[in-house]
Amino acid sequence: MNVDLPEVKVKLSGERGREVSFRIIGMHCASCSLTVQKAMRSVRGVLSADVSAASNEARVVVGEEFDRGELLKAVQAVGYDIYREDAVISLRRLEADDARLIETAASRMDGVFKARVNLGLNQVLVTYNPLEVEPRELAEELRRMGLDVVAVSSYDEADIDEKAALIDLNDIRTRLMIALPLTAALFVAASLNYLGVLGNELYNLVGFMLATPIQFYSGWRFMRGAAFALRHGAANMDVLVTLGSLSAYFLSIYLLARSLASATFFDSSAIITFILIGKYVEARMRWKAHESIGKLGSSRLTARLVDGREIPVVDVRPGDEVVVAAGEAVPVDGVIDQGEGLIDESAISGESTPVRRGIGDAVIGGSKLLNGYLVIRATRTGKYSFMSQMLKLVRQAQSSRLPIQSIIDEISGYFSWAIISVAVITLITWLFIMRVTLPVAVIYMASVLVVACPCALGLATPLSIMVSMGRSASLGILIRNAEAIERMPRVKVMVLDKTGTLTTGKPAVSYVYDVRGGVDVIKWAASAETASNHPIAAAIIAEARRLGLEVRRPASVDVVDGGIVASIDGNTVAVGNERVVKGMGLELPPRVEAMAKGRLGTLVYVILNGELLGFIELRDSIRPEARELIDWLRRNGIKPIMVTGDSEGPARSVASELGIEEFYSGVMPAEKGDLIHELRRSLSNGFLAMVGDGTNDAPALGTADVGIAMGSGTDIAKEAGDVILVRNDLRQIIRLHHIARKTMSNIKFNIAYAFIYNAALIPLAAGVLGIMIRPEFASIAMAMSSISVTLNSLRLMRA
Q1: Is 509 helix (H, G, I), strand (E, B) or coil?
Q2: How many of the other CB atoms lie within 10 Å of CB of 590?
Q3: Is 504 in contact with 620 (CB distance < 8 Å)?
Q4: Mean pLDDT, the chain, as a whole number?
Q5: Which of 110, 526, 745, 782 has the highest Cβ tally under 10 A?
Q6: 771-797: buried (b, 16+ CB within 10 Å) or exposed (e) per residue?
């Protein structure tokens, strides 16, 4: 769908506040606008609100205490939404302990609903109101904070991961290429000085000339970052590296000024080089981790139209017909109008087995035609395409944080200050208690500053999350909420919807009972259901067409609890379950009740002008992998529960066939959320997961601790829940559990390693054992700690 947005509308409204415009999604009548208006007026800081159903626009006058996040929650709580857009602001570099500071500052900007930092990509992901602010304005605000913004992008750029990662990688490489030969020469000079070949005077002059560009060019990225952090009252790895390296450098300058023959420590500037080597290795490995996500979005840059013209994919519009030959990638989402062929959809669903597609079948941009020839009519392009939506969800999930990350962030916020304190204490202890010379005390202090590694601690959780999200996406499992990773291994109860989840969701008419003995039941039911896209409606319509019956379109349709009521040629037709029968003021005649009793399929009753015509029975086949999932749940101590809107007979039949002991029947979509809430309350420990079709089960998926939606493979945007299974395969739940368990183990190891590393090496660097670790060697240990955490996180690529 294309959204035509008006220009930014922000204006002052007297002394009371300022007026902001929002586009509301989901309104269709005056009562909707009143509901949204009331919800908005209840939000703190909203002075007044006027909502128009005609323009779908809300004009809100806000005061000092206004919070956009609260406004969004209030609107969503009454069943509507506020239109938002996302911007990806790429930074040249971003350290782990800067994330919280940047998120807080960015979230306070006008027009911003939420800001999230993606440490793996050096990006700030901003969700904003396009009627209030533009992405370039947000980027300027970040620049004013002292951040080096290199790009502002939207999610429809498939190669954004690679571009963002390479920017930082190239910057490190450039600085490293200067530092490496200079450091090598510095070490050669130091060795010659140690051997007596080079005198102190000449070595000091050479050392000064070699160390200065290392310190102030190659090390500028650390010094700049330190200045940014200290200006905002924070301390990070840059501060530690800068203080450690500069203390040794300026100590050497001081000694050199006193005497040209003094013993200096210019070789300690190698701190910069060794840490750059570590950062380069770390950045390259992380770039490799992003490469799998980049490949998800990689496709043809051009599309060939049926008239022979070749145009950029971004210029293809819905309705255009494009040609795809064997061996080529499908450039856009669309429907096959001509031809057929074998298509590799592994980039989308993770399924390696090719599938055959023909006329009328949907295809997704990014898949590959192995053989055949296709003419595809484009349906979705650009940011509305499946792949763009998929990449958007993956990036959002990668930047989300686990509850444990908040604790780590809190610790990291004080960590660097604690290290600086320890370094000062080390200096004082060695200088005034141990009575050593100033140069020796400074070297101990510098080693403490350099050996500590807040980066390893800061990367422990987000890097594992980023890699596991990418791995999951490559398997066709889209995790929208990172908390699902933390909760999934502790799930004790899994509630599964029946229709479309445990069954294929493609019912067929198996029996028809018509009181009059004709086909009126099918004819009227099919006519009433033409306005519905429900699988049951499709089955009834298909049966009517098979019988050659005339299907009329209703003049109006009302959705009621358990079915629909339609007006057709002046007749009132009601179609649905027993609730509809009772709602129409009828009782089932004994003969009809006797015929319905014992039927194991889904029963749909048909009422014409207050008269019961009969019922239609539909059967839905159970998914072949459903039994495998249920058996696996039991073996792993997870209790399966089935819930359905069907009557008890069909529900009991499916539950019995799958071996599910507990099930709930006759539960309407609106009631499923309440049921999930009650089941959660009954749990003494652990979490509850809900598996459903993502549309009818939205309330239940949102209420569960982990909501798992069965994806359609082509309509990802309408799915609900924390996890979307792109491939409609219940075995993906088993894979999800495996990845979640591996990820949490990985995170715990990273955190434990980071704490143990710092606890062991900081006292050692302080000289507790009487051993002096030179700052340049301490820097090697610091670099290795981050590399170790990165390597451990990358193991999840094979989970």
Answers
A1: strand
A2: 8
A3: yes
A4: 82
A5: 782
A6: eebbbbbbbbbbbbbbbbbbebbbebe
How far apart (Å, rounded) are the C-alpha atoms in residues 385 and 723? 19
Whose tokens are 């911003």? That residue is: 112
User: Which of the 8 DSSP states describes residue 308?
Assistant: S
Q: What's the pLDDT at 560?
A: 83
Nearest CA among 539, 535, 654, 650 for reference residue 601: 650
Beta partners for residue 616, in sequence order: 512, 604
* Beta carbons within 10 angstroms of residue 485's beta carbon: 28
What pLDDT does 599 receive?
80
Instruction: Quote the pLDDT of residue 166.
Output: 67
- DSSP letter, residue 383: G
Which residues are catalytically annotated?
497
Interhelix angle 535-546/520-529, nearest 10 degrees: 130
Report the distance separating Cα 407 and Cα 591, nearest Å. Answer: 66
Q: What is the 3-state secondary structure (H, E, C) of 541-563?
A: HHHHHHCCCCCCCCCEEEEECCE
Contacts of 611 (CB under 8 A, 6+ apart): none
Burial class of residue 637, CB neighbours in 10 A (0-12, 13-18, 19+): exposed
Tell me the pLDDT tens digit for each residue of 72-130. Answer: 888 887 667 888 888 888 887 777 667 777 777 777 788 888 888 877 677 888 888 87
Return the H-helix or E-strand segment holding 389: helix 386-399
Q: What is the secondary structure of 461-528 as a DSSP string?
A: THHHHHHHHHHHHHTTEEES-THHHHHGGGEEEEEEEIIIIIB-S--EEEEEEETTSSSHHHHHHHHH
pLDDT tens digits, 692-735: 875 567 788 888 999 998 875 445 444 567 898 888 789 999 99
Res 658: pLDDT? 94
Separation CA 516–CA 520 (nearest Å): 8
DSSP helix/strand/coil, 64: coil
Paired with 503 in beta bridges are: 622
Question: What is the strand order of the sheet 611-619 is part of?
Answer: 508-514, 611-619, 602-608, 571-576, 563-568, 556-560
How confident is the model at residue 712, as a pLDDT?
56
Domains of the chain plus CATH, in order, are: 10-82 (3.30.70.100), 85-154 (3.30.70.100), 165-290+400-464+744-798 (no CATH), 305-394 (2.70.150.10), 477-504+622-726 (3.40.50.1000), 508-619 (3.40.1110.10)
Give the per-residue pLDDT at 659: 93
Amino acid at residue number 358: G
Ranges under pLDDT 50 in the chain:
1-15, 29-31, 54, 155-158, 160, 713-714, 716-718
Q: What is the largest CA-CA distance in the chain?
A: 115
**Alpha carbon 598 to chain centroid, angstroms:** 46
* H or E segment and range at residue 542: helix 535-546
Q: Where are the alpha helices (DSSP H) in 301-385?
A: 346-349
